[in-house]
């Protein structure tokens, strides 16, 4: 793993300007993500998780501080990351293949070459045979896998995933965790992952950033000392349960 970060946030401050007074979301926070890492961002509702993603993608500009992606200039971030929103946002009138193809339609290269790549991706994502299906014919987990594949096909090394499994029932979510943990080693991507789910954050991540919105807009970093490869059964082990408790205490500022 190279030691120079793919994402580097230094001294970031941001406030939404209100009619009467500004609402401070971040005050001088710093976050680094190394190539190939899986890093989660957790925090209470309103702590600024989505705002952080908007700042990283370049939809918002920091009031203070810098954000570098892949060492590029802080002011030039638009189009540099793959972003997957919370809702799958698949177009209902397009088939699975055509939904995945969507971002590739604007890029150069042969259509056949892209189709081969998509077919290969669908196989890896357990979606072979569903090429011509429409979103309403898929389960929630399958829709999220199509949306994830589409995000990956954009070809960016850094992926921002905004609660991709948040709307799934617990059994489907468990299956998605198994699937993602299995796939993870081969993906060779860097992921920044928003979640409310502490178990999910520990299971999937190398490190976790806690956003402490109500506590002056600061962040705390927490390392997940669990070896890989991991599997979703880990959550039943005493070491995992102890970690979860430690993280909860940290969130509630009792540690
Ligand atoms: N455009 C805006 N103008 C003013 N305030 C905003 C705007 N967008 C978000 N906020 C406020 O900023 C704070 C952080 O919002 P944000 O959506 O980033 O939180 P979040 O952690 O993603 O929440 P959730 O988990 O509920 O999605 C909230 O208090 C929200 O009301």
UniProtKB/TrEMBL annotation:
GO molecular function terms listed in the Swiss-Prot or TrEMBL record: ATP binding
Q: Does the keyword Secreted apply?
A: no
Keywords attached to this Swiss-Prot or TrEMBL record, sorted alphabetically, are: ATP-binding, Nucleotide-binding, Transport
Q: Where is the ABC transporter domain?
A: 7-238
Q: Which SUPFAM superfamilies match?
A: P-loop containing nucleoside triphosphate hydrolases (SSF52540)
**Highest taxon of the source?**
Bacteria
Instruction: Name a Pfam family for this protein.
Output: ABC_tran
Q: Which InterPro entries match?
A: AAA+_ATPase, ABC_transporter-like_ATP-bd, ABC_transporter-like_CS, ABC_transporter_ATP-bind, P-loop_NTPase
PANTHER family in alphabetical order: ABC TRANSPORTER ATP-BINDING PROTEIN, TAURINE IMPORT ATP-BINDING PROTEIN-RELATED
Listed name of the protein: ABC transporter ATP-binding protein
């Amino acid at each position: 793993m190279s030691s120079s970060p793919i994402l580097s946030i230094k001294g970031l401050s941001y406030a939404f300007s209100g009619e009467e007074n500004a609402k401070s979301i971040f005050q001088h926070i710093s976050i680094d993500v190394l190539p190939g890492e899986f890093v989660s961002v957790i925090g209470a509702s309103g702590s600024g998780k989505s705002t952080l993603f908007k700042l990283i993608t370049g939809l918002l500009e920091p009031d203070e501080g810098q954000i570098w992606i892949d060492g590029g200039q802080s002011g030039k971030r638009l189009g540099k990351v793959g972003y997957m929103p919370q809702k799958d946002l698949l177009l209902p009138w397009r088939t699975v293949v055509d939904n995945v193809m969507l971002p590739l339609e604007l890029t150069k290269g042969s259509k056949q070459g892209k189709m081969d790549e998509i077919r290969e991706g669908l196989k890896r994502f357990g979606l072979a045979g569903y090429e011509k299906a429409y979103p309403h014919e898929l389960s929630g987990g399958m829709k999220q896998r199509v949306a994830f594949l589409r995000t990956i096909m954009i070809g960016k090394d850094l992926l921002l995933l905004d609660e991709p499994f948040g709307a799934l029932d617990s059994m489907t979510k468990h299956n998605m965790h198994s699937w993602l943990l299995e796939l993870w080693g081969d993906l060779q991507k860097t992921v920044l992952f928003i979640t409310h789910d502490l178990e999910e954050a520990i299971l999937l991540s190398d490190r976790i950033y806690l956003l402490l919105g109500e506590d002056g807009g600061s962040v705390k970093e927490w390392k997940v000392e669990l070896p890989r490869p991991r599997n979703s059964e880990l959550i039943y082990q005493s070491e995992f349960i102890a970690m979860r408790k430690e993280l909860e205490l940290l969130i509630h500022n009792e540690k």
